[in-house]
Specification:
The structure is a homodimer of 435-residue chains. Chain A is mainly α and 435 residues long. Chain A has 22 helices and five strands. In chain A, β4 and β5 form a beta hairpin. Chain A is elongated, with a radius of gyration of 30 Å.
Chain lengths: 435, 435
């Protein structure tokens, strides 16, 4: 690239929002990405690292030395450093901890101690607090001295001497109400609060339900420890739905689309291996019936239909149940109702689609009995898919596992092996009528 | 249920947030749901209808007569009525339109005219505007007269005489800056704005990128027409990710888990039918090779492995590409790089997993040539999966289709039929060594 061009690019990058620079970096192949990354101002490095995806962040951090990383991290807030920490080398984290003051160090350490999907990992420390026993006028004067409020400050947190949350003061009320009134009389006392150990999913649902912009995070003694804001929640929702989609497809994590072949293979091998095991099992099920197939080769051509439709139908059921579980719509009382309903759907589908495939088999091979076996096998496999499609996620949920992860692979394994077994088994039983 | 209990339930429901009542309704089987719905105060009906899922909303609306629906809708804002409108009977909408004043009627009609996934369909009309040539003091006095600001008002929109947006005034600045200053000197002039015809996805990404709480929506002549807020954006993101997940699994839309068997069958039949067609095709591909299978029945047991792993690997590739397309990370220049990379991944996986399945086949059937055919077929099918996994979504995107919908079904169809063809074709070619 021409030097002139580099200078222009430099100037352009300086004017861009860090989030936009992040987007550009994501879309560039590796070499170009590192070239552009070198042109970015050091002061923006930290913010951009926060904005890029995990996979791209890793590639950028690998290109930086310890001093550069320290300089980047020092431009960030404690909660933001915590977000970067998993990707930083140990010695950089150590040096960072030493460079922070006591309060910040304690906050960084406690943020790092919360599990990834908890409120504690998402919260920040940019809360503005006031006391209940002052007038709005006094509160306003205090705010003016601060010069600037943190982003997403839609309310101030009203705390007492011990730091316990007594209410919240929406900025709106501060603006609109009589300045001589007391904070205690104007504040909202019914507050949606969270605990650091709360699940992030539940907090996200509460933000959606009550249309929150920010909310206090408190400890067991009601003392303010942090703040959760809607931008962190939105990022979390996006990330969750992404990772659901990726794990359904059998990818372990987000992948940098321009990553090396070897990295991609590593990211994808686990699910391929699991799939291979289930495919081997299905293969052995078919192997059990090789004498049957020898007698009637048509069975080999027909059996993938039974397995395929079963898998499709099972995936429909399981997706619906996983979603309903995530939204808290399934209670022990209603599980039986769901079984009954899904079995009804399967029976009806079995009748409809079973007739279609039965007719297809009859027309192709001219044997009515073969059509009936197809129809019977289809119905039975759809029933199996329905029962397992409800049972697998409900049981996983009961034993505290995430029902989304691997549920699709499991149900497909069941409907494949089960479908082959049912179809070839029925064919073996009724072979006299099929020949 | 006892009358006493009903009275208690009544009181309990009155105290609950509409969003919480909505959640309860979602989790109740049909009969109980309608019982509880009757106990809800009429004034809350509208808000609750907005909060429940499409499927449940339909069931609730069906239980109401026109007068009840009108009463419920009249408690709502114009943009909220527009959200309900698709589910309301035509005569109720007509009566509603007649009952509204001219401005609201015009707004409702224009909101209804925007496509579902546009900013126009998501925006509301709760904007608070001020002029640039007044002091902050004057602006504050004006706000105090309003008594209350709409939810999610984090900034006021500064407009000129013609209604054109000249800037925004964050509430923060209104609070913190000198009251004698002019709005024009304090306001932010660089504003993220949207147009009603913008895609909602792009707006959602902008909200995430710039951490917005609210933003003005303007027309071609820069005049303010509405407001987009983060809660509408969050709802949209959630709904989008849900519908992606559902369409991957082959469900047409969100389903009320307690809906009737017949309704469920209707929701699911389309994808099952498509799947059936692709399964028939795969079946005919196998049928082409029945003489080969007759000679070596082991092929029937092994062929699902080739098809299955190909499908799994193709789904991994396609999911990654669909996601990268949605995030705007793929440009025409980089598409070739992606092809090269995915082909590399497929070749490496073919070598690794091909060896594993080859060894498996050799150990089971004691024929080295069978192992080699398995390995070759696996590699070729993985290459096919890689090429189609990139090509299908990129082409769908190029022709303006949503690459997420149906991509999984398409790639599986290709890897199934393709896998059977490749494996059985190779086996036919090398039959002399396999017998």
């Amino acid at each position: 690239v021409h030097k002139q061009h580099l200078a222009e690019l430099h100037a352009l990058l300086d004017d861009m929002h860090p989030a936009d620079v992040a987007r550009v970096l994501e879309a560039l192949p590796r070499d170009d990405r590192l070239l552009v990354w070198d042109l970015v101002r050091v002061e923006h490095d930290g913010e951009i690292l926060l904005e890029v995806s995990d996979a791209v962040r890793e590639s950028l951090i690998k290109s930086m030395d310890s001093d550069e990383l320290l300089a980047a991290a020092e431009t960030l807030d404690t909660d933001e450093i915590a977000d970067l920490a998993p990707d930083l080398p140990q010695d950089v984290i150590q040096e960072l901890l030493e460079s922070l003051d006591a309060q910040k160090r304690a906050r960084l350490q406690s943020t790092l101690s919360y599990p990834e999907d908890s409120v504690g990992a998402l919260m920040d420390y940019d809360m503005v607090t006031i006391r209940a026993d002052v007038t709005l006028e006094v509160a306003l004067r205090y705010l003016r001295r601060l010069k600037e409020l943190p982003d997403h400050t839609d309310k101030l947190f009203v705390v007492d001497r011990d730091g316990a949350v007594r209410g919240v003061m929406p900025l709106q009320r501060l603006l609109l109400q009589d300045p001589d009134a007391n904070v205690a009389d104007v504040m909202a006392e019914e507050v949606v609060t969270f605990r650091p150990e709360d699940e992030a999913t539940d907090a996200a649902q509460a933000f959606e339900r009550y249309d929150l912009v920010s909310a206090p995070v408190i400890d067991a003694r009601n003392r303010l420890v942090g703040r959760l804001t809607v931008d962190a929640v939105v990022d979390y929702i996006r990330q969750e739905s992404d990772s659901d989609m990726l794990s359904i497809a059998g990818l372990r994590e987000e992948e940098d689309i321009f990553s090396s072949v070897w990295k991609s293979v590593q990211n994808r091998w686990a699910w391929l291996a699991i799939n291979l095991v289930t495919a081997f099992i299905a293969s052995r099920v078919i192997g059990m019936f090789d004498h049957t197939i020898e007698k009637l080769v048509a069975l080999a051509a027909l059996m993938p239909i039974i397995a395929g439709i079963g898998g499709n139908s099972g995936n429909q059921t399981i997706t619906m149940i996983v979603r309903a579980l995530a939204l808290g719509q399934i209670h022990p009382d209603s599980a039986r109702k769901l079984f009954t309903k899904e079995i009804g759907v399967a029976a009806l589908n079995g009748l409809i689609w079973g007739s279609v495939v039965g007719l297809f088999a009859y027309m192709l091979y001219g044997k009515p009995a073969l059509g009936l076996v197809m129809m019977g096998a289809m119905t039975l496999n759809l029933l199996l898919a329905a029962v397992m499609g409800v049972a697998i996620p409900v049981l996983m949920h009961k034993f505290g596992r995430d029902p989304a992860v691997g549920s699709s692979v499991l149900i497909t394994a069941v409907t494949d092996s089960g479908g082959f077994f049912i179809f070839l088994g029925l064919a073996t039983l009724f072979m006299a009528y099929l020949k």
